[in-house]
Amino acid sequence: MADPLPDEVVQGGGERGAGGAPGDLDGAAVTAAVTAAVTAPGPRPATTAPARGPKLSKDAYRRQREAIDAELTRLGLRKNHLELAVGDPAVRANFVELRRITSELADVEAALVVAEDAWLALEERAP
After folding, report:
1. Which pTM does this prediction carry?
2. 103 within domain boundaries
3. Tell me: the pLDDT tens digits for 86-123?
4. CATH of the domain at 81
5. What is the 3-state secondary structure (H, E, C) of the chain?
6. Per residue in 17-60, pLDDT tens?
């Protein structure tokens, strides 16, 4: 596999920053290396780290956390309700109702994943 970074960046050569030590790159060289790595063709890593935003104030963090916690609770309760409904013999006998419930269950599970990701992103911005 080819390394997407230019050789001078990988080997520590190239332009030197204010420190002047070998391997110290200035901002423009780092930006160029990152741009080259991002735009280079080839395999990409499966996951990328999410961009972290600025830290939130305590009040904003509390408000957002309460909203996300309420959403997680609501979605969790709805998921439990739908899972119980799938086990009901009357629902299992009615294919139309079973299809409706399983479709809604899939939607709730997808929304739950989104809410969990929002919670994780919020925790990274905690004060």
Report:
1. 0.56
2. yes
3. 999 999 999 999 999 999 999 999 999 999 999 999 99
4. 1.10.287
5. CCCCCCHHHHCCCCCCCCCCCCCCCCHHHHHHHHHHHHHCCCCCCCCCCCCCCCCCCHHHHHHHHHHHHHHHHHHHHHHHHHHHHHCCHHHHHCHHHHHHHHHHHHHHHHHHHHHHHHHHHHHHCCC
6. 444 444 444 444 444 444 454 445 555 545 555 556 788 899 99
Kindly state the average pLDDT of the residues 70-96. 96
- The reply to whether 70 and 112 lie within a common domain is yes
User: Is 53 within the bounds of a domain?
Assistant: no
**Residues 120, 63: one domain?**
yes
Same domain, 106 and 83: yes
Quote the domain boundaries for residue 65: 58-124
Residues 42, 97, single domain; the answer is: no
Check if the beta carbon of residue 57 is closer than 8 Å to that of residue 122: no
Q: What is the pLDDT of residue 50?
A: 53
Measured CA to CA, the distance from residue 35 to residue 6 in angstroms comes to 11
